[in-house]
Design a protein that fits this description.
Blueprint lengths: L11 E4 L15 H6 L1 H6 L4 E4 L26 H14 L3 E6 L9 H7 L11 E2 L20 E4 L4 E4 L14 H17 L3 E4 L23 H4 L5 H11 L7 E5 L5 H8 L8 E3 L8 E2 L1 E5 L4 H15 L6 E2 L9 H4 L6 H13 L4 E5 L20 H9 L6 H11 L37 H5 L5 H14 L1 H5 L1 E5 L6 E8 L2 E8 L5 E2 L12 E5 L8 E2 L4 E6 L1
The structure holds 1-deoxynojirimycin (NOJ).
Length: 550
């Protein structure tokens, strides 16, 4: 039976719960806060919410270190609050997507506690290895967050593998019992009524047999042997056939270092095991491998990323579209301009919202939040940032070392959503929020933007509403123009007689506006623009225009 792929008509909003809205006044965001804001999320035109993890967790990696997969953290309001949010969302016709994090657990998960004591059946739930004969680590792999990927455990007398933080031991997915656990987790949430899963680093779950040294990767050593590992498709197929196919749900896979061609092995609509993919190329136009290796922003690199995915998935698979999430600094501070905060935030919205795929909007993106720049490392909360600060660039000055974090840290985009110009940006009634509020909250906040018809927030609403009306966005074909330009990004979406042209300037100067051949601009209707006085042949700094022919 042909699936009703309803997610193709939707726009999702990502909630990173710690910083969204504090409902109970303890300084940390929670589900009560989300419940209060369901109408707000809906008012953006969003049809669903993806929740970054809300399970019980010691919080070593912002909740991506899960201690119990079948419960909701008490600090977020527990299961009762979750059910209220789920019901409230469904009543409003909105979907709920959970984060499925099964490459690793928390070291405080019961499975790990039993595994380290060799209590059956948990003994082989994780990837344990003795030291090498020469006393060295089991292999040369790196973790992403805290040095090498191996941690010695005194209880068990062996090393365990952790591709992320020390407190995030990797599960042994080759063990059929672990895969049964994953299926149980999936069924548990689906039976409760959730509508889909965002699958965390899912391409890492199968490690190459023998865990050989990696002599290829220049950094993040090991990736050669676990990204798209030997059994990944087999395991994903098992989850699909045994569970996912029996529910009306969808999946979106997070996949670092994946090309569109490789992605098709996972998300081809005929043969894939998953529905969409979160690729990283679109957020790598100003860095190499990860935000921690910054480079100058290259518009051509960004355009190539978006275009490649549009062209190569056409007719075969469905794109997910995003420019921000909890793992990357704020997009205005990266691809846009803080000096043109309002203009560039709107331009970046138009830049991706009219492409083919399912868009995701990350909390705060819709008001154009910018990077946080704390004056001391003590203020950071993210494990990756803290490790990097203390272990890299030690020969640089304090200021240079902090600047590096401002540019690269995930916390740059994890400060509380700026709801108003009240104390703590209206995020919490507590004296002190769990992480500092960005000091620009008096200028950039939801309340002020609600009242301003010309705000970034209202631009998002307009753009999303337009997107939903245009058949050519959902059903059309993408074409890019002037790809060599380092100032303009221009593309069209065409479906039979309906066509749009999206024009975006990435320049802080006035720029010439050439029109592509075959576009009769006299017949075009300008349906969206971020300036009140658009000109015919020139673009203002960071101007965007969307033209329609019908
Ligand atoms: C990807 C998540 O998005 C990120 O926040 C997390 O730290 C890692 N996976 C590990 O779970």
């Amino acid at each position: 039976m042909e699936r009703n792929r309803w997610y193709k008509d939707m726009v999702f909003y990502q909630v990173w719960p710690r910083s969204f809205k504090d409902g109970d006044g303890d300084g940390m965001g929670d589900l009560l806060g989300v419940y209060e804001k369901l109408d707000y999320i809906k008012s953006l035109g969003c049809d669903g919410i993806w929740f970054s993890p809300i399970y019980p967790s010691p919080g070593a990696d912002g909740g991506y270190d899960i201690a119990d997969y079948m419960d909701i953290a008490p600090e977020f309001g527990g299961m009762e609050a979750f059910k209220k949010v789920l019901e409230g969302a469904h009543q409003r016709g909105m979907k709920i997507v959970m984060d499925l994090v099964v490459n690793h657990t928390s070291d405080e998960h019961e499975w790990f506690q039993k595994s380290r004591q060799r209590i059956e059946p948990y003994t082989d739930y994780y990837i344990w290895r003795p030291a090498r004969e020469d006393g060295k680590l089991p292999n040369n792999w790196d973790s992403f967050f805290e040095g090498k990927a191996w941690q010695w455990d005194d209880v068990r007398g062996e090393y365990y593998l952790h591709l992320f933080a020390v407190k995030q031991p990797d599960l042994n997915m080759d063990n059929p019992l672990v895969r049964e656990e994953v299926k149980k987790i999936l069924r548990f949430w689906l039976d409760m009524g959730v509508d889909g899963f965002r699958e965390d680093v899912i391409t890492y779950i199968s490690k190459k047999e023998g865990l050989p040294d990696d002599h290829i990767m220049p950094a993040s050593k090991g990736m050669t042997h676990y990204n798209h590992g030997p059994h990944v498709h087999e395991y994903l197929q098992e989850f699909k056939e045994e569970v996912l196919d029996h529910y009306d749900c969808f999946t979106i896979a997070e996949a670092p270092l994946v090309s569109p061609k490789k992605a098709l092995e996972y998300i081809d609509e005929e043969q894939g095991q998953l529905d969409m993919m979160i690729q990283f190329q679109c957020v790598s136009a100003d860095c190499f491998l990860s935000d921690y290796y910054p480079m100058k922003f290259s518009l051509r690199r960004m355009k190539k990323a978006f275009s490649d995915w549009q062209y190569k998935l056409e007719n075969k698979a469905w794109n997910s579209l995003y420019i921000e999430n909890h793992d990357h600094p704020r997009i205005v501070s990266r691809y846009g301009s803080e000096a043109f905060q309002k203009e560039s935030a709107k331009m970046l919205a138009a830049m991706y919202l009219f492409q083919k795929g399912t868009p995701f909007v990350y909390q705060g993106q819709e008001i154009g939040m910018t990077n946080w720049r704390p004056d001391s490392i003590e203020k950071y909360r993210d494990v990756q940032t803290i490790w990097n600060y203390h272990n890299t660039a030690l020969n640089k000055t304090e200021e240079q070392r902090l600047q590096r974090q401002w540019r690269s840290a995930r916390d740059s985009a994890r400060t509380p959503v700026q709801w108003s110009d009240e104390k703590n940006a209206g995020f919490t009634t507590a004296e002190t929020p769990w992480i500092e509020v960005n000091e620009n909250y008096t200028q950039i906040n939801v309340a002020q933007q609600e009242a301003d018809p010309d705000s970034v927030l209202n631009f998002y609403r307009k753009a999303i509403a337009l997107r939903k009306k245009l058949r050519c966005v959902r059903h059309g074909v993408y074409q890019e123009y002037f790809h060599a330009s380092d100032k303009l990004y221009m593309y069209s979406m065409t479906e039979e007689s309906q066509k749009i042209l999206v024009v975006c300037s990435f320049s802080d100067q006035e720029t010439k506006f050439p029109t592509p051949k075959d576009f009769d601009m006299d017949k075009a209707q300008l349906i969206l623009c971020n300036y009140p006085d658009p000109k015919k042949n020139t673009l203002h700094p960071y101007e965007c225009k969307v033209y329609l022919w019908k």
